[in-house]
Amino acid sequence: MNKGDTLVVVGCSGAGGPAALMAKKLMPEVEVIVIRKEPHFIVR
Question: Which one of 26, 29, 32, 43 has the lowest number of neighbouring Cβ atoms within 10 Å?
Fold first, then answer.
């Protein structure tokens, strides 16, 4: 991926969360967006 690209991860309950963290670690120049469906979303 190139600088300025966006990676969108849908879902975070299974492998989505670790995948998003690993993607950000391996490609810090890429914007990572996680989409989750929860009634009370807490950002860490």
Answer: 43
Q: Return all residues near 36 (Cβ < 8 A) that are at least 6 apart.
A: 11, 12
Question: Which tens digit of pLDDT belongs to each residue from 1-44?
Answer: 777 789 998 887 778 889 899 999 999 999 999 888 777 666 55
Q: How far apart are CA 36 and CA 11, in angstroms?
A: 5
pTM of the model: 0.68
Whole-Å CA distances, 31 to 23, 27, 39, 40: 9, 9, 25, 24
